[in-house]
Amino acid sequence: MTRIILASRSPRRVQLLRELGIRDFEIIPSQSEEEPDTALSPEAAVEHISMAKAREVLSRAGGEGLIIAADTLVYLDGRPLGKPSDEEDAKAMLRSLSGREHLVVTGLALILDGRELSAAESTLVRFRELSEEDISWYVSTGEPMDKAGAYGAQGLGAIFIKGITGDFFNVMGLPLCRLAESLEELGTPLTSLVSEG
Amino acid sequence: MTRIILASRSPRRVQLLRELGIRDFEIIPSQSEEEPDTALSPEAAVEHISMAKAREVLSRAGGEGLIIAADTLVYLDGRPLGKPSDEEDAKAMLRSLSGREHLVVTGLALILDGRELSAAESTLVRFRELSEEDISWYVSTGEPMDKAGAYGAQGLGAIFIKGITGDFFNVMGLPLCRLAESLEELGTPLTSLVSEG
Question: What is the predicted ipTM?
Answer without folding.
Answer: 0.90
